[in-house]
Amino acid sequence: MDATRLLKLQTNSAHDWIDGVAAACALLLLTWMLWVPCSAGQSSALAASQPSIAAKSWLLYDVNAQQVLAAHEPDRPMDPASLTKLMTAYLSFAALKEERIKLDQRPAVSQRAWKAIGSRMFVDPGKPATVDELLKGMIVQSGNDASIVLAEAISGTEEGFAQLMNREAQKMGLRNTQYRNATGLPDSQHYSSASDLAILASRLIRDFPDRYPLYSMREYAYNNIRQPNRNRLLGIDPSVDGLKTGHTDAAGWCLVASSRRKDSTGQSERRLISIILGAASESARVVESQKLLNWGFQNTDAVTLHPAGKAVAQYKLRRGAEAEIAAGFEGALTVVVPKGSGDRLQTDLVRIDPLVAPIAKGQRIGTARISLDGQPVSEVPLLALSTVAAAGWFGRAWDTVLQWAGF
C-alpha cells in the first residue's frame, strides 16, 4: 500500500482512527469483492459567429441556460453609472421580503439625498415618499435621490449600504465588481463588468419575479413631474421588459436589456439579457442592444438535454448509509448552440472521485461537460438529488478495508 495514498484515506473523516482499528477485524471477513466505479464560459461553438457590436464591452446571456452566447471584453472593469441601481434594487427587494422595510413606509429624506446631483425623482423632505414610490423613482426615473433614501433606510448610511452591496456581490460571485455608493455617481473605486452585470440582472429577475414588472413601466410621475423610462427599447421592441440604463461622461452610454421571445418551435420561451457598456451615444446603446438581442434569437437554439428533477446517473458512494447516490441538475439542463446543430451535442458526466458520505442534497458531486463537434459548449454542476448520511462505524471500517484492498 502506497503511504501517500494511505495518508489521504486517513484524512477523509474525523472517525478515521477508529475506522483503522476496526478495519483489522473487518479484514478477516473479506473474501471476495468486485467494485466497478461509474464513469461518467462562453461556448467556443458560438464564438466564431458572434456579431460586431460598437461598444467598449458587451455581452449576451441566456438566462435559462446560464450561458454566455457572445461577448467582447466581458470581464473588463468598467464604470457602471446607474446600472449600479440594479444592486440597490436587489437589496431593496430583499429588505422588503425580509420585512426590514415596508412598501407604505416613508423613510426620512436626508440633506444628502435631497441635494443629490444627476438624475432625480425630486423627493420632498417635507413630504417623504413611500418605499413603493421610491422604488419606482429609482427604477423608472433613475433617481439618485431615491437610491440614497432607500440606502439610508436599509443600512443607516449610504456608506454602510455600499458595504452591504459589496458583501452581496461576493456572495453572487461577482469577481470584477466593487461599490462605493448606491447611485453609480463616478468614483475611481466604483466599477463592475459585463459578466458580473449579467449575473446580477439574471438573479434579480429570478429571485424577485413579483417586483420585476417595475422595470417595464414606460413612465412615472412623482411630485407633479412626469418622467419617461430612459430604456427606449421598451417602446421599440415589445419583447423587451427591462432593465436599466446608465450614463456618465466616464462610463459612456450603457444599457442592460432583457427580452423574452418564443423559441423556433413556438412551444417554449427564451429570455436573453444584453449588456452594452461604453457606447458612443444614447441612440447607439439602443441600436447595439437591439442588434445583439436579434442576433441571439435568430442565430441560436436553446436545447433541453435533460428535464428538471430527474436523475441522470447513479454513483457509488463510500462510507454512506446508502451504497449509491442519484445525480442530477438544479433545473432542466439547457444549452444554447448555433441554430440547427442541436442533434450534434454530446454530454460527458465527470463525478468527483471519491464520493464520500455524508453528502447533502444539492451538493456538487461532479460536472456535466457539453460539447458540439468536439468543441466545448458549457459546463454545468452535477448535484446530489438526495441527502445521504454517513454509515455507522462498522460500515465505515468495512469501506476502509475495501479501499486498502484496492476495491
Q: What's the helix and strand layout?
A:
Layout: H1 3-10, H2 16-27, H3 44-47, E1 57-62, E2 67-72, H4 85-97, H5 111-114, H6 131-139, H7 144-155, H8 158-172, H9 194-207, E3 219-222, E4 225-228, E5 240-248, E6 252-262, E7 269-279, H10 282-299, E8 300-306, E9 313-316, E10 324-328, E11 333-338, E12 345-351, E13 364-372, E14 375-384, H11 393-404
Antiparallel strand pairs: 1-2, 1-7, 3-4, 5-6, 6-7, 8-11, 9-10, 10-14, 12-13, 13-14
Helix pairs in contact: 2-11, 4-7, 4-9, 6-7, 7-8
Just name the CATH architecture of the largest domain: 3-Layer(aba) Sandwich
Q: Which segments are poorly predicted (pLDDT under 50) over 5 or more consecutive residues?
A: 1-40
Give the CATH superfamily of the largest domain.
DD-peptidase/beta-lactamase superfamily
Determine and state the CATH class of the largest domain: Alpha Beta
Biggest sheet record:
5 strands, antiparallel
Q: Into how many domains do the coordinates divide?
A: 2
Number of strands: 14
Give the CA-CA distance, first to last residue.
13 Å
- Give the DSSP E fraction (strand runs of 2 or more residues): 15-25%
Mean pLDDT: 86
Rg: 26 Å
CATH topology of the largest domain: Beta-lactamase
- What is the helix fraction of residues, given as a range? 25-40%
Structural class: alpha+beta
Q: What gross morphology would you assign?
A: globular
Helix and strand pattern: HHHEEHHHHHHEEEEEHEEEEEEEH
Spatial strand arrangement across the major sheet: 2-1-7-6-5
Total of helices: 11
